[in-house]
Amino acid sequence: MQQSTLRWKTMGRAIKNTLISLVGFIFVAIGLIFILLPGPAILFLPLGLALLSLQHEWAKVWLKRCQRLMRNSAVQLDKMWLRFKYRKP
């Protein structure tokens, strides 16, 4: 009886890990498609990488890169906005 519950638990864990990876890869693929086409790539790529980073070390590295690029872009946009806002007419 204990063996069968242990088997179900490990099988459930394997299915869960597979589903997380599958959904993560799907979100990353959608994000990459939305880079070329108009769409919310800025949402799908980090979400997919976050899901994949739960299980894969390489995804953690790419997620950190993505976060760094997004943060730097936000800082640059803030600077541009402040220059535009306080420009002399």
TrEMBL record:
Record flagged with keyword Membrane: yes
Keyword Transmembrane: yes
InterPro entries listed in its UniProt record: Uncharacterised_PGPGW_TM
Pfam families in alphabetical order: PGPGW
Domain of life, source organism: Bacteria
TM spans (from-to): 20-37
Keywords: Membrane, Transmembrane, Transmembrane helix
Protein name: PGPGW domain-containing protein
Species in which this protein is naturally found: Thalassotalea castellviae
Lineage of the organism: Bacteria, Pseudomonadati, Pseudomonadota, Gammaproteobacteria, Alteromonadales
